Amino acid sequence: MNRSIRFTSVFALLLILVLLINLTIIQAFSREKYAENPLNRRGFIEMKQQPRGQISADGQILAESYQDADGLYQRRYVANPMAYGPVEGYISDLYGAAGIEASYNSMLSGTDPSLSISGIWDDLLGKQKAGANVELTLKPQVQEVAYNQLANAGYEGAVVAIRPSTGEILSMASTPSFNPQEIVDPNTAESAWENYNANDGDPLLNHATQETLPPGSTFKVVTTLSGLRAGYTPDSQLTGAPNITLPNTNTTLENYDGQTCAGQQTVSLATAFQYSCNTAFVQMGIDAGADNFREAAASFGVGDTYDLGLPMAAGTIGELPDDAALGQSSIGQRDVAMSVLENAVIAATVANGGKRMAPHVVSKVVTRDLHTVTEVKPQELNQALTEQEAATLTDLMRLSEQHTAGYAGQNIASKTGTAEHGEDSRNSNPHAWYIAFAPDSDVAVAVVVKNGGDRGQAATGGSVAAPIGRAVIQAAQGAA
């Protein structure tokens, strides 16, 4: 054989071998990367050949499929999509998928291996294949109260309500929000996408799970746990002075509005908690020590993420290089940051006698003939607090509620927070926080209103966030 022909033949064979190897790698090992990528338009076209499963909450359909004039199945968001958008998400030909639509895509589209038997049975019976339905734990009446409380006031923020005994999320509201129907409708998709991304409030972000903020005085629940484990009791005496100097610095921290705690130079821990006196908690946090502080935060799950089917940012207590840093962190400032979901878990854990349950927003997945494919069962993560620690914190949080604006005799245990932030933190519009639970009802809530809501620098957790939290608790009690 001619040498040139032989060389060309060998080279061609090598190219064929490389192509076969590459094809094998793509088909065998890169399926998830390419074939199941939500941006893969071929996958969307295939999915449109059969109805996608429904997303529902407590029997109310939130998302469903319908057949258009061309015989293709399109997505429709039917129940108050602005209230549910950050949870249910969207599935768009142009912009991929988000939220539950993304994380449960294989179930909703009917491509999950666990649905293969159901698919075979449909073929045998001549039925059209269909995706499975995803049922959420959200209670519509609670969800809509939470969303409306934020949206009607024009607030940026989030609300999460949890059933402490099971970890079921009863509401997860986020504002500003978005309408998933606008993103999936080809007539509005591009303009909606552009407008949402240009909005400084980040409406496409789930502010309940994806955003962490300084929690302010709500974090005193964690600091109190560290103090209890260091030997403090509600009767332990602490400073009530209007300000305190951080160790080895000239930096001072003050009580709210520079006031003496309850008009006293020395106060009990119970009084300090009731009046949320910063100086007392700086003293106790430093005395209890960094190890107790870290362990208390870890017990409550600060820094953990949960398998919600939704993206989640992890909170942090930051580095604690010295006592000055510990003192600042003890009042939920400096580098301490938490999501609303994490703060709701703290309230729920105290309410549940110290047992921390895994929060979850999906209840179960069922086929169209109501056969259960998967069901999320309550999962205890840890005994975060002893029953005595939980009882003590409950009593202290009851005292705090009684001192909060708008208290009208409700049986609620709570803690407010007014968190400074930004480069000029003392002159910032603070984030207003409220975490609470009703001891005689199985509901806990966390609320944040960013940047003071409509009250600017005058905002406090008690005046801005607490009314929202109480309304959500009342709605949950009515929905139980």
UniProtKB/TrEMBL annotation:
Residues 157-473 form the Penicillin-binding protein transpeptidase domain. It catalyses: a beta-lactam + H2O = a substituted beta-amino acid. Keywords: Antibiotic resistance, Hydrolase, Signal. Residues 52-134 form the Penicillin binding protein A dimerisation domain. Its EC number is 3.5.2.6. It is an enzyme of class 3 (hydrolase). One of its GO terms (molecular function) is beta-lactamase activity. It comes from Corynebacterium pseudopelargi. This is Beta-lactamase. GO terms for biological process: antibiotic catabolic process; cell wall organization; response to antibiotic. Belongs to the class-D beta-lactamase family. InterPro entries: Beta-lactam/transpept, Beta-lactam/transpept-like, Beta-lactam_class-D_AS, PBPA_dimer, PCN-bd_Tpept. The keyword Ribonucleoprotein does not apply. One of its GO terms (cellular component) is plasma membrane. Pfam families: PBP_dimer_2, Transpeptidase.
